[in-house]
Amino acid sequence: MAKYSDDQILKEYLKRFGGKNFTSLEDLITAKEGMGLETATPLQRAIFRIADGKPLGYLAKNKDVAEALGISWEQLRKFHLGEAPRELVVLSGIRTAKSFMSAAIAIWASQTCDVDHLRAGEIPRYSIVSLNKDLAHVVLNHLMGSILASPALTRLIYDQNSAKKWLDNGRPGADAIVLRHPSGRPVEIKVVSGKRAGASLVARWSAGVTFDEAPRMAGQDAAVINLDDSRAAVVGRLLPGACITMIGSPWAPMGPVYNMVQEHMGNPNRERVVIKAPGPLLNPYWWTEERCERLKKADPTAYRTDVLAEFVDIEESLLSQYLDSSTREEMVLAPAENQEYIASMDPGTRANAWTLVIATRKGNKKIIAYAQQWQGTAMEPLRPREVLKEVAAACFKYGIAWAITDQYAADALKDLAEAHGLELVIEPWTRQNKIDLFMELQSQFQQGNVEIPPDQYLIKDLRLVKRRVTQSGISIIFPETADKRHCDYAPAVARALAKWISDVRVEPPKPGEEGYNNWICDKMLAQELEEYNSPDEWWDR
Questions:
Q1: For residue 463, what is the enclosing H or E element?
Q2: pLDDT tens digit string along 90-99?
């Protein structure tokens, strides 16, 4: 039997089954023979047409498209750029095929870029830049997966042997793929992390660039991953008709993309088009009304960014709106038998207060049973030995002989506490565990699962805890007040409740409630089985 080369097999396969020529970016994405997004929404199709410089057609009467562009219906009917914009900014919710869209734009750019003036050996590059290489690889995975799944796209691969090497055990083995331009020339599509974007973008002629998660990239005065400098590096190297695409979900109200939205939203032109695309308009199959409402209740900030495609407030109170409904009337709850208690303190000897809280739990309700503070001054600082003696006395009253504390003077305080029979458990603060714990604490307050005493200092400290948004994420801030406090009760409360925050307890039904009889029967059966399986005789028990 004759042995055929890979190229011969591919040519024969394409002759029989492949070979469709795509007429537009929209055709490439939505055609079954292409990337197969046959369920594209009207707004998705509008984005494809704008990115391709095509007229909107019937979509010029769609109110969702007008709102996404920030213009009126009358302006939308007259809207037509005639060519692709030099810069396209797409703010969208999550789970809206952003990476899929970026992959399609890269493939289309490799086929439509103007290579007429390039000399032999000059290979243009389409760059995919993200915060790190892993995120950029997501786009390349979509791209390669779509190409290998479509005979009509497989024929675009410039070197079939390279394509085989590109996939190593089903995973990317390289950072680039080379496609064949209609002229026969190679065009490279390459992923690169933002930290190394500068050198990559100046290396060659550019068929275009996608800045993935662009809203999280900072400007030239703020970060290594610098969108301003990266744009400046590539703009002079763009081939005729090439486009800079910036896509991602909005985050902090700062940085180059935020400034572009503020200046250009509602004024689409050939230089720049800004599109704000809420999740349900791009993926209504995922962002159902029920799912949107559930996220809105669980996390208003995530709903704002991930669904509405809006920037978040730069700083906001984390807990204040839940405190009134979480405050009981009694200042102190007396110790109860068979109740578990946890003590946590936040030491401070001068301006900062030294705080102690003792917490317990009833079902899913986390309760601050006791709270006390000691306040020193710069002139008369607190004496740790004396404070720890009082801390120990309070803990013993609730049947506990240990307390959680942070790393502040931990070794010295541990020795002093042992003299009073109190053991200190040291749990250091880190930036990440501080964020995780306070965001979980916010969720518990939202669900009505926390009860606090009417202590004015404790309530004030919790009310002042802030969540601050930065380009790289969020931070938990303890502002300093006029009396030099730093929300001193807040860390003690958070650490006291930490053990139970993610633990959900299902309370048994009470007498007279539905299911009580079945619960009693199950409990009796479990007890009988335990006794039956016990190795001890009944008289030994």
A1: helix 456-464
A2: 999 999 988 8
